[in-house]
Amino acid sequence: MSNGSQILVFKDMGLVSQVFDEASLGSLHGHIAVGHARYSTTGSSVWENAQPTFRATVHGSLALGHNGNLVNTAELAAMVAELPGEEHVSRSGRTAATNDTDLVTALLAGHPDLSIEETAKLVLPSVKGAFSLVFMDEHTLYAARDPQGIRPLVLGRLERGWVVASETAALDICGASFIREVEPGELIAIDENGMRTSRFAEAKPKGCVFEYVYLARPDTSIAGRNVHLSRVEMGRRLAKEAPVEADLVIATPESGTPAAIGYAEASGIPYGSGLVKNAYVGRTFIQPSQTIRQLGIRLKLNPLREVIQGKRLVVVDDSIVRGNTQRALVKMLREAGAAEVHIRISSPPVKWPCFFGIDFATRAELIANGMTIEEIGRTLGADSLSYISIDGMIEATKQPKDKLCRACFDGEYPMELPDPALLGKLLLEAEIKGGQQPPAVRGKPTSGSDLDGVQSLLGGAGAADALRRP
Ligand code: SF4
Are 184 and 148 in contact (CB under 8 A)? Predict the structure, then answer.
């Protein structure tokens, strides 16, 4: 938050509601602010990596929030190490933060001869991967989006101000009207003179299709398409592609609900509520450890016995990543008296890792890697299992196929990826522990340590090829 003469950063670990209360919010005064709830990808979940990241500059200071994940972290670390002053930050020549975002902040703050805006135009073309950025100095708010526009970023207008947010739903909540999306490759600056825009790279749109399937809020619209309606349509198409005789369609709450509604509508099978979700437990696949994840599944859902007893069920879910949720679910539904359990998934099998901000799993952990759909169905204990086709999913988003990233489903990555040893969650931690420069600086990739399972990722069939694909 900037009051025009200085920036105050307030951040901590935990949910937004645990970090901010009336008193802490009341202590923040100013006319420009950025905020971000971090979902850790590159860099561990520690305070130093919480956002906004911060740097002092010769002109003042800089705070930055980043949605997405970068793929050339090692290269950026090498660029940061060359900056005058950065070697004084710590004895190892690096700051305590170990995430990709902090490197971008350092680069943006690292050119004392240029303004932040000029620096951004110079630096952002070198940043590769998914980045929807908001950053600020004492006087100006900036927003930038990667040339592929992988993650969403939108611009809104308040009566007396501007808002930039990841999703249109956030604009609705603060009463701002939607103006437009920040374009892929665009840099926006907003100050007392209003808004100005420039381009730091040519737009090559490849929006993440998984935003429509699961990630984005249902009340958000991306590229003009409402997310909830996309999910209902995925359900309708799934019913046509994978029909089954059954008595009741239920959803895995809540992300499977719109697709279940669509499935019921197109199949004529009644829709009902068969599972109750504990609202206090977070999304399961984004929790970091397997133990907590398994506990999370048991804590998360409870079957409504009276509704499902003796019924042939169609259970609609948005995706299967490791299969833990669905395996526990089938067991629970059978114990609660279901006569048959048919699983229908409103996205295709997830076979490839995501390097753009979703910490799915390594290839070795993905249940669809190396198993047929029938085999997966058997390991889940289901009577049948079907997924929507890639084309069915894409048609439901109403976006042209070539404008979407769908790499986790088909392995067609929207950009060239570096050597696998230069990717991974703990890349910068590994470097600091060894007291060494990043791999790119040493001129050869690291070996030996498993960077977030990158080695096991390579062990999967065809994974090395995946990393070389354009
Ligand atoms: S790989 Fe999948 S989750 Fe990652 S950006 Fe592409 S479509 Fe989205």
Answer: yes
Domain ranges of the chain: 16-206, 226-399
Handedness of CA 400, 403, 408, 414 (dihedral sign): positive
Q: Whose CA is nearest to atom 4 of ligand 1?
A: 354
Residue nearest (by alpha carbon) to ligand 1 atom 5: 208
Q: Which of ligand 1's atoms lies nearest the C-alpha of 409?
A: 2
Amino acid (one-letter) located at 44: S
Ligand 1 atom, smallest distance to 352 CA: 1
Record the pTM. 0.85
Ligand 1 cavity residues, CB under 6 Å: 150, 208-210, 354, 356, 358, 405-408
The tens-digit pLDDT sequence of the chain (470 residues) is: 988 888 888 888 878 888 888 988 888 889 999 988 877 666 666 677 778 888 888 888 999 999 999 999 889 999 998 887 665 444 344 455 677 888 999 999 988 899 999 999 999 999 999 999 999 999 999 999 999 999 999 999 999 899 999 999 999 999 999 999 999 999 999 999 999 999 999 999 999 999 999 999 999 999 999 999 999 999 999 999 999 999 999 999 888 999 999 999 999 999 999 998 876 655 444 454 566 555 556 677 889 999 999 999 999 999 998 888 899 899 999 999 999 999 999 999 999 989 998 877 677 788 888 899 999 999 999 999 999 999 999 999 999 999 999 999 999 999 988 776 666 665 666 554 444 443 332 222 222 232 233 323 333 333 333 333 22
Pick the CATH number of 226-399 from 3.30.360.20, 3.40.190.10, 3.40.50.2020, 3.90.79.10: 3.40.50.2020
Which fold, 16-206?
Glutamine Phosphoribosylpyrophosphate, subunit 1, domain 1 (3.60.20)
Calculate how far, in angstroms, residue 143's C-alpha sits from the geometric centre of ligand 1: 22
In the three-class reduction of DSSP (H, G, I as helix; E, B as strand; rest coil), residue 397 is classed as helix
| 80/107 Cα distance (integer angstroms) | 6
Q: How far apart are CA 211 and CA 216, in angstroms?
A: 5
The neighbouring-strand residues paired with 196 are: 189
